[in-house]
Amino acid sequence: MNKFGKKLVIALMASSMLVTPVYAAPNTNEIQAQKEQKEQEVKSLQQQLQSMVTKIADLEQQMITKGEKVIQAKEDLAKAEEQQKEQYEAMKLRIKYMYEQGDVSALEDLFTSSSIADFLNKADYIETVHKYDREKLQEYVDTKEKIEKLKQQLEDDLKKMETMQASFEKEKEQLNATIQSKQAEVSDLNQQLQEAVRKAAEEQQKKEEEEAKKRQEEQRQDNTEQTPGNSDDGDSTPSNPGGNTPSRPDAGGSGNTGNSGNSGSSNTGNTSVAQAIVNAAYSCLGTPYVWGGNTPGSGLDCSGLVKYAHNAAGITNIDRQSGAIGSGGKAVSSPLPGDVVCYSGHVGIYIGGGQMIHAPEPGDVVKVAAVYGSPWYRRYW
Questions:
Q1: What pLDDT is recorded for position 167?
Q2: pTM of the model
């Protein structure tokens, strides 16, 4: 067989070695495009979530303000009722003074006047007294009705806001659930992308190894043809097909040994101040939930409770609104009694053992409850 024929046989043999199952390489570009699209969706949803959180915070501030107006209206109404009662009692005294002795005495006062002018003055005085009493009584009745209507309007507005808040919270939960779902899809696509890259690297490596084997076989055959039989040249070069083959680094060997370290704070602050916060919170137990409430025993909302407890411990640099409270102070991952338990739109005082004191919602009272969900914690002491 001539040299050309041998090369043809070698080429056919080499090609037969390459006839192995060939799998279509995953389309990494397509997976990457899908991943980027999902990431953009997550980003858009997170922006919507942030907008919703801002709306909830703004609404909470409006509800606190509206609640304070309701409280003031109730106080004004109580004062108006008291003034009305005092005016009514004064009017009765005057009526008693002028008329309880009988009409004869009243007539005698008129007819024993020293002159017509005196008579007319006395008659005018009696009429004036009656008119004054009627006007003052009507004035306080009108004031009472006005305040009552204002109080009712404020309470109606507050109920509408509470309904709106519940709707916002529901939408926020739905957005959170959707974001988690989309993030799971992104994570899955990321795994697919890594797998596709790994397979592509394996196939490339396999292809290079087959080509190397082909070149080695051709080189071996050329060497055999150049030294037929027992050559005296002694110049044949061993092909060493099993010689040193350079090893390739593992393309997927990116070990993640990330050590996040201690994210919590080891600074315990002033524990006596922290205990004063807890004691103040305990003193508020049983106080009715009232939007805008700042007074233990009378009415408190969640941020009003937290602010009161800190003020009682001498800490005044704390906000009145839960969103601002949840972003102020110092972040802690391992809470201690006296820290603030923070949720979106809600706060409480941590008392240890996985429990907190908080003002839950309208219709409820300040109480001890288990910490629930996934809160974060802030420290002001």
A1: 80
A2: 0.52
